[in-house]
Amino acid sequence: MSNQTSHRVAVIGGDGIGPEVTTAALDVVASAGVALETKSFDLGAARYLRDGFVLDDATLEELRAFDAILLGAIGPAIGDTRIAGGVLERGLLLKMRFGLDLYINYRPFHGVEGSLAQGLDFAIVRENTEGPYAGEGGVLRYGTAYEVATQGSVNTRFGVERCVRYAFSRANQLSCKKLTLVHKTNVLTFAGDLWRRVVAEVGASFPDVEVDYQHVDAACIYFVESPERYGVIVTDNLFGDILSDLAGAVTGGIGYAASANLNPEKNSASLFEPVHGAAHDIAGTGKANPLAAISSAVLMLEHLGEVDAARRVAQAVADFEGDVAALGTRGVTKLIQERL
Ligand code: IPM
Ligand code: MN
């Protein structure tokens, strides 16, 4: 069962619960019989506070050459004001997403028992290198009564098209073959129109996929009231960020939500991380839910071509029935390992 070649994986445990859930994910990968050659990178809030290092170009280049990057969580505790907003987000996470051209953020959701979307599967395909995240804009007359702050949204045909194409190919693999574009075409008329036309154009090559469109505000209602209407949702960077947290909430909590920051052509290492943050309040208590990190490792295994191991771990997560809060990180991880 085990693949003879071992994959080279960069591991960024990060802050708070990040290292614990990452260890859990790596333990599960080992139990699934996949050999990884790992190298740890000490990056994140703790590192920054210690010596001011965020991520330099040399380290980014080193990361690029790996087969994958597995990340736990990055960030200081809530209320810790020693790190200005954006230092780690832009300097570390977005530097990797942009620098490694990880233009897809793929986030599959499965409604766990008792959740609003119980038993349902859908996925968000979020454009990951453009939109308002591109950082266009600036400040004039800072701090004065005449201050001007602009923050533009970048939408290129190239960027939108490659994202939409990936979303269609994902939707085409589903039995329901549904794709929903979520945007705000009634107000963001320039960007919205580009997205809409690109979906129509790319969709011509996927005649079996049923295409729907929703405004993002309406989608917030449908996510809660009728999540069964979705297969793949494709949307821009910021809408995708916001909808991911809502999707996490309706499928059982962000503690289950996995994500893959992908360069589908494998020109650089793709990055796999849970959607959740560092949760410093429960770090070290053994209470963190490792399932989001484990499901992120499933996405990593798929990307590495370890499809059989990925399928077995995904099945073990889907079959998991225990009480996460009572079992804790180790207990949940052990149960998953036993089912493999
Ligand atoms: C996410 C996170 C990031 C984002 C932050 C930490 C920059 O919220 O991965 O969803 O906004 O993309
Ligand atoms: Mn987010």
Q: What does this protein look like?
A:
This protein has 340 residues and is α/β, with parallel strands linked by helices. The protein has two domains: 1-102 and 263-340, Isopropylmalate Dehydrogenase (3-Layer(aba) Sandwich), CATH 3.40.718; 104-255, Isopropylmalate Dehydrogenase (3-Layer(aba) Sandwich), CATH 3.40.718.10. The protein has helices at residues 18-31, 45-51, 57-64, 87-99, 157-172, 189-203, 216-225, 237-250, 291-303, 307-319, 324-339; strands spanning 7-14, 36-40, 68-73, 104-110, 121-127, 137-140, 148-151, 178-183, 210-215, 232-235, 258-262, 270-274. A ten-stranded mixed β-sheet has the order 2-1-3-12-11-4-5-10-8-9, with helices on both faces. The protein has a two-stranded antiparallel sheet with strand order 6-7. β11 (258-262) and β12 form a beta hairpin. The longest helix has 16 residues, at 157-172. The structure holds 3-isopropylmalic acid and manganese (II) ion. Manganese (II) ion binds at residues 241, 244-245.
What series of H and E elements makes up the topology? EHEHHEHEEEEHEHEHEHEEHHH
Count of domain modules? 2
Compute the gyration radius: what is it?
Answer: 20 Å
In the CATH hierarchy, the third-tier topology of the largest domain is known as: Isopropylmalate Dehydrogenase
Strand order of the largest sheet: 2-1-3-12-11-4-5-10-8-9
Structural class: alpha/beta
CATH architecture term of the largest domain: 3-Layer(aba) Sandwich
Level-1 CATH class name of the largest domain: Alpha Beta
How much of the sequence is in beta strands? 15-25%
